[in-house]
Design brief:
Blueprint (H helix, E strand, L loop, with lengths): L1 H34 L1 E2 L3 E2 L3 E7 L4 H14 L3 E5 L4 H8 L6 E4 L5 H9 L4 E10 L1 E5 L7 E3 H8 L8 H4 L9 E4 L5 H9 L12 E3 L3 H9 L4 E5 L1 H6 L4 E3 L1 E3 L10 H5 L7 E9 H6 L1 H21 L6 H12 L4
Parallel strand pairs: 3-4, 3-5, 8-13, 9-10, 9-11
Antiparallel strand pairs: 1-2, 5-14, 6-14, 7-11, 7-12
Helix pairs in contact: 2-12, 12-13
Length: 327
């Protein structure tokens, strides 16, 4: 009987150890699950994300998608650059999840989205100073007025040579390099400088949605002029010269982090956006995770590629807003 009692006690002890071990294993699994996070505590996610749009916003988004995929390798963030208008053509029919833009969405684009049951919400990522540039080999132009920009770029202007703008400048053909019609940068320049009047096009004008094409066309040509986002100038400032721009009789101001953020580089300072398909945000964990990652890291990315970060509270306000989309 005594041996039987001892055996029963031993079995009970073993049972207790088994229960404790099971509890311990559960805690370890829970700890492992808690450790299976990304960045701000988001869980591992997987699946595709489709992003397209502005070439101006492209450097920021390229930085963000690269760093994000280091943390979330099972996510395939496909990033393309077809211009702001090209991005909206896709986002308004639900082909992509995020639409990068260097301008606000147009009313007709918004109407197309609504017809297709799509809600697109803007998020500001950074500030940009649309930069008017010439080659560093250009030794005669350092600044221009708004009226001189109109003379150079407006189709209705008779100015063809630099001497037509200023008699002291060379009698050489002005060669224009500008973003294409699908570019938000083209739209912005057209609105604030040309006041929606047609821009020159033809044999002495090169249009492209690829800002690198514009950079290459300008940098070795002392008679060339063009415009694009500040980041592309900052990346190539050894071969390009950013011009000061003067409004009326005011002093010419050049683009730079301070003048862009404080608004003194006017009227060419502007916000940069990505427009989020709200349904995609609600329905796809990887889109939701990436959007929140973007708002947590956009300021750092903007500064790394040559743009100007928003105030930190602006990113937090937007983060609070997007999290409310799923409530």
């Amino acid at each position: 009987m005594k041996n039987f009692k001892n055996l029963a006690l031993m079995l009970a002890f073993v049972l207790v150890l088994g229960v404790l071990a099971a509890c311990g294993g559960s805690d370890e699994e829970g700890a492992a699950d808690e450790g299976n996070t990304n960045g701000e505590g988001s869980e591992e996610v997987s699946g595709p994300i489709a992003i397209d749009g502005s070439s101006t916003v492209f450097p920021i988004m390229e930085n963000l998608t690269y760093s994000y995929q280091q943390e979330q390798p099972e996510v395939d963030a496909a990033l393309n650059s077809s211009g702001s208008g090209g991005g909206f053509k896709k986002s308004t029919v639900g082909e992509i999840d995020l639409s990068n833009a260097s301008r606000e969405i147009k009313e007709e684009e918004k109407a197309i989205a609504e017809e297709n049951g799509i809600t697109l919400e803007p998020l500001e990522l950074a500030y940009d100073g649309l930069s008017v540039v010439v080659s560093s080999k250009n030794d005669f132009v350092d600044e221009l007025t708004i009226d001189q920009l109109k003379q150079i770029f407006l189709d209705s202007s008779d100015a063809q040579t630099w001497s037509d703008i200023n008699p002291e400048w060379p009698e050489e053909q002005i060669e224009i390099f500008a973003p294409g019609h699908d570019s938000g940068t083209f739209d912005y320049f057209n609105e604030v400088i040309l006041e929606d009047e047609p821009m020159k096009e033809g044999q002495n004008t090169t249009l492209s949605e690829d800002d690198n094409v514009l950079v290459r066309g300008i940098k070795d040509n002392p008679n060339a002029i063009g415009f694009f986002g500040y980041a592309y100038y900052a990346e190539n400032e050894d071969s390009l010269k950013a011009l000061g721009i003067a409004e009326g009789d005011g002093e010419a101001v050049k683009p730079g982090p301070e003048t862009i953020q404080d608004g003194s580089y006017t009227p060419l300072s502007r916000p940069l956006f990505t427009y989020v398909n709200v349904n995609a945000y609600k329905e796809k964990a990887q889109v939701r995770d990436f959007v929140e990652y973007t708002l947590n890291n956009a300021g750092k990315a903007a500064e790394e590629v040559g743009y100007v970060a928003l105030p930190e509270e602006k990113y937090q306000e937007q983060l609070d807003k997007v999290k409310g989309w799923t409530e």
